[in-house]
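Researcher: Sequence recovery benchmark, item below. Answer with residues only.
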């Protein structure tokens, strides 16, 4: 049973939180805190222009001593946004986050944003898939 990203989204939901590149870091942190999100897509209209994550905050804001109420998201966001399509497998998504060294992947069906998965979502799905396989093998060995 190969688990697809579409199946992961069915379990976790399709909510994606976003922010304008002109918003302040403080506003971004408020949105993230309010939704328990580790990252926000940065969008202009329907177009993804970047991603802002806790990692961006720690590395680009806190360590450099920038003011959260004055610094714009545009100034510190990650501009290269890796993504995945819903029909791809969890393993393929794990390869993307590993190779790209990122923790969040927007899920795009063509040009349409349909969700976002985190490395935590992928690990959880991967473990569930392996547990299912182990149970199947145990049943087979026992002759059930």
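Model:
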């Amino acid at each position: 049973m190969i688990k697809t990203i579409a199946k992961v989204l069915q379990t976790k939901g399709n909510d994606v939180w976003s922010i304008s590149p002109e918003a302040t870091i403080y506003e971004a942190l408020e949105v993230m805190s309010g939704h328990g999100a580790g990252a926000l897509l940065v969008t202009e209209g329907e177009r993804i222009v970047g991603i802002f994550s806790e990692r961006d905050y720690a590395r680009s804001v806190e360590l450099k001593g920038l003011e959260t109420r004055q610094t714009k998201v545009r100034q510190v966001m990650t501009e290269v946004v890796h993504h995945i399509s819903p029909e791809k497998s969890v393993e393929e998504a794990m390869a993307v986050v590993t190779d790209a060294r990122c923790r969040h992947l927007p899920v795009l069906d063509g040009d349409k944003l349909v969700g976002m998965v985190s490395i935590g979502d992928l690990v959880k799905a991967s473990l569930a898939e392996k547990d299912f396989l182990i149970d199947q093998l145990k049943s087979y060995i026992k002759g059930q």
